Amino acid sequence: MRDDRGTLARLAMLVVGAVVVALVAGGATGTLPFADPDPDGETVLDRVEQRYDSAETVAGNATVTVENDTATESRTLSFVTADPNRSRVEYRDDHRYVAGTNGSVAWLYNASSDTVRVREVPGADRSAMPDAANVSDAVDDNTTARTLRTATVDGQEAYVVAVEPTNESRSWNTTLWVDTDDYRVHRLRTTDGTNRTTVAFDDLRFNVTVHDSAFAPPSDADVTVVSRERYTSFDAAQDATDVDLRRPDGYEFASAVVVTRAGRTVTVGRYTGDANVTVAATTDDLPYANVTGTATNRTGNATATNVTVAGANATYVALEDRGAVVWRDDGVTRAVVADLDREELVAVAERVRSTDS
Question: How far apart are CA 354 and CA 332, in angstroms?
Fold first, then answer.
């Protein structure tokens, strides 16, 4: 048994949006001096780790195909990664999207609108960021590895290695196709019982020279800066905002996030009790805060109706899987969101409005 967090964390990366892509990170040029013809799976993964750990940069393309019983979807992306904590991924369909991080900020660029969203990476998170890759929780578990056979992939001989979790409650399994000559990964396939995700790597180039600007957001785009700070105590969240936070009576504080985007700050607290409840507060408007009468939003997925919350005019919004009650009090817009019916949600909102700051 082994813990493959270090090895597999350099084999896959989860990419922005609905596209999940595994990216190889690290590597060194040349052939490693391993002579035995049929190493076992544990040995193959050890040698993959040695190969990738010694790299400063890697660039290439990855074709990601996700399949299940009813659909198949495929995307091709180009990527470059570098130590420490830097990466860049580019994807094109009808539009062009580029996502990246330089370790201090993470960003997403939309070429069609020439806009880039930038999110600061909190200092506490930077040390936890992997060199240039991230993987799903499933791949981070303790695993066992077996060499099944050799096969030819794009004209190259590769070891086929099966990687499985030691925890029997986990249903995923992963297969790697590892070059028998230099231990680069040609292909990675993960099956979770429903979806099968295959990542095929192409044109891998190791230790290429990459300018620091490749990992920085475009400077000439319309930039929207987003900062996000998470708090695990109510008092710490309150200290981080000028808005008086309210918590529903009878519910326990779980966590809070303070998000600032384009000069607007929203504090979102999460509470547990009879239901999981989210309470948002901001001095700016929230969606549906000024709706009067009954309305339908632009996508047709929500309706808004006037209600009263402890004597204040408010709006109840029926979403597909939850509801929200929004009102404005003393210059502060508040929203209570939960998977509750209208009467129950209004009752929770009344607890929030009646709570002393």
Answer: 14
